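Quick one, T. Sequence first:
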Amino acid sequence: MEDIEELIAPPLDHSRPRKRVVPRKFNSCIKQDLPIADSIIPGTQSVFVKTWGCSHNNSDSEYMAGLLATYGYRITDDALSADLWLLNSCTVKTPSEDGLRNSIASAEKLGKKIVVAGCISQGAPDTKFIAGLSVVGTHQIDRVVEVVEETLKGNSVRLFGQKRIGKRKLGGASLHLPKIRKNPLIEIIAINTGCLNQCTYCKTKHARGELGSYPIDEIVQRGEQCFAEGVREVWMTSEDTGAYGRDIGVSLPELLYRFVDIIPEGCMLRLGMTNPPYILDHLEDMAVILSHPRVYSFLHLPIQAASDSVLYEMRREYTCEEFCHVVDFLRKKVPGITIATDIICGFPTETEEDFNETLSLIEHYKFPSLFINQFFPRPGTPAARMKRIPADQVKKRTKQANTIFQSQFPYNDKIGEVQTVLVTELASDGVHYVGHNKFYDQVLVPKKERYLGNTLNVKITEAGKHFMKCCVLDEGSKMSVPSSYSNPNQLRYSGTKKLVQRLLLERNITRPIFLILIAGITIQFLYIVYRANYKD
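Structure tokens:
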């Protein structure tokens, strides 16, 4: 049996008056002390989920929210009313760690129960500000219900460890767990966890560990499921998508060739970050895949520094020339492709001459998307033990890089073009929707609800630094929404159809009645067991 709802009869009719039912009177002088329960009844508590960091972390939060909702907990965006805060942390940068620290302090001040998940708690479980708090490890997200239940009882629980078959590390918890998507039109699929690198500045390795890939069949099945549920866009993510499969004897192109066959018309795939060493082996195949009409011609390829000596000290395992070869090859084979990259300003061994090489690279390639980061020494990493460059010099270099980047306007020559965009989300200004063209450029379209989840043919009328605006020429392929998801809010739920979803959303049954139904099913089951074992 896949769905508990199969045991539920149609909603009871509560419209008839019950004249014989009268409230029982209690002696007001007797103090009614509530007993302390041995367990927590799910559905009577609410959980606030906050996430820092990458799309992999966001996917983990969606899975944990789905598991909690399946069990009966109410997921809320209202932090003040929540009984428990589930904080999914990121260890990449110091500001993210500061954000977690501040959120813990706020939750404690408000008297909230706290569960910490993510890379900080996994990679540095002895961190002082999470001492005594419950923790869910990055490989243990499928056990979040246990941790939340025990935490609400007042206990502190810590679950770490990796999932393995023999000595081989697995990708993590099953991809088929229930999920509550933050964006109902976008599914994030983590194809692997961990990486093969040993970057001297990176703390994520301490949390996610060595490479662990999911089988191709499991990823494809997850994709088929989410498209059937009405998803329009899939993001494949991991700490390094290019390394996918090297631990299980397959490759990224093998996965992608399988996956593109299941993408319906009007839907798109976006490939996540890959490091240069692992994409070099598959350039021809990647050019074919990124040219596919249902795959965004977009690749996030971090360089971090253009100086080979700095790359060596970072242990990045490639040269600037190899990075440039990847970019040049893909730009030639996939005309118009968007290459996004990252740089780190102020790595401890970086000289002015080294940094000037990075500036020259930015000027030459004019990347439409560039993530500029100051070096942050992460505790426990080799780079944290290196002598640091003065902070004012790091800020100066960051400003120099940003000045060059902000002076480049890659979309000015797009004005007047006719493009096809897939509309998937609300823009940050609140008055537009965001569509993406084949190259994953951001195109702002008028905020009309019928546009969401559909492709539009548009004409570009205005260009900014990070976006384009348009007028809609016609509504291209309009995707039909599955009947079971006629309510847009229901698109958020994925995996096992939850009793919470069906009863509370479709049948408009209140939570107390839901709990009564669950109790009735439990009592009936126990009675059957009793009769089977103790009948005369």
